[in-house]
Specification:
52% of the residues lie in helices and 4% in strands. By secondary structure, the chain is mostly helical. Belongs to the IL-15/IL-21 family.
Length: 104
């Protein structure tokens, strides 16, 4: 996955979906994809891993949408409803969510 040692401002925070309800999984993935794009633009030394992660999330979201597991547009699943965390914790939350998705 990503190198969590990417240098960023100490105050940088990213929405990190945790305890995601099953019907909100695709929304949470989309949230994290958007947060990764933001991180990639903000970080001094962002790398190819971030671009690859965004591309992989694009593919996963499309695959879920093709299987009728797409975005809900529900306020219950809104990105802004999740806690903002430092990048390292964001990466941990992303990895945890991906493990859940691939174990379904």
């Amino acid at each position: 996955m990503m190198n969590a040692t990417v240098k960023c401002d100490e105050g940088s925070r990213f929405y990190a979906p945790t305890n995601v309800k099953t019907h909100c999984i695709t929304d949470a993935l989309d949230c994290m994809r958007r947060e990764l794009r933001t991180a990639h633009a903000e970080f001094e030394d962002s790398n190819e891993y971030m671009v690859e992660a965004v591309d992989s999330l694009d593919d996963l979201i499309k695959e879920r949408s093709d299987n009728n597991l797409g975005l809900t547009n529900s306020t219950e699943c809104a990105c802004e409803g999740y806690e903002e965390k430092p990048f390292v914790e964001f990466v941990n939350a992303l990895e945890s969510l991906l493990q859940r998705v691939y174990s379904l």
